[in-house]
Specification:
This protein is mainly alpha-helical and 175 residues long. It has 9 helices and 2 strands; from the N terminus they run ααααβαβαααα. It has a two-stranded antiparallel ribbon. It starts with a helix and ends with a helix.
Length: 175
């Protein structure tokens, strides 16, 4: 074996080590599910549909005045993001592990740039970092306001004509 191939083999983690690292990283979901089972919930989905979660969520949203803790926005729909899955957080005894987030910020926290779900440890670190990051708040505020800009294609007359055509089609039952 050549010298470089030996060096690469020495620095490449074994399959077993990679699996152990992956299980440590994703193990938070296993611990969460174990705690939920002890609390009497068969799944995380059942927990999210429970009266307990509704009360916890409302307390968190009220605490944050229904504003996203990450970008500062006040969207019509907000979600409560679990920063951790400790049992006292799941039971609502400690609310500091739950954050109010708009859907855009929640997507930013939970998913990678490629769209894959991030491991809980990564999400936890990212959550704590972004909750304090003013530059991120400004970036997300810009993104939040961007889609609200009216399209600049066409003149006012063309847009009015298109609107009239759509209203006529709706009245005729086409849509």
């Amino acid at each position: 074996m050549s010298k470089t191939r030996q060096d690469r083999a020495r620095h490449r983690p074994s399959r077993r080590a990679a699996e152990q690292r992956r299980s440590r990283s994703w193990g938070a979901y296993d611990r969460r599910n174990q705690a939920l089972a002890e609390m009497g919930f068969p799944s995380y989905a059942a927990y999210l549909e429970s009266e307990l979660w509704r009360k916890i969520r409302l307390r968190v949203l009220r605490r944050d005045f229904f504003r996203c803790r990450f970008c500062g926005g006040k969207p019509r729909k907000v979600c409560a993001h679990h920063g951790d899955y400790e049992r006292d957080t799941l039971e609502g005894l400690r609310l500091s592990g739950i954050y109010t987030a708009c859907y855009r910020c929640h997507e930013e926290l939970e998913f990678s740039a490629r769209g894959g779900k991030l491991p809980p440890k990564t999400v936890r670190k990212k959550t704590r970092r972004l909750a304090k990051d003013q530059a991120f708040r400004e970036r997300m505020a810009e993104r939040r306001s961007a889609p609200l800009q009216p399209p600049s294609t066409g003149t006012d007359d063309e847009l009015e004509a298109a609107g009239a055509a759509i209203r006529a089609a709706i009245a005729a039952g086409v849509f």
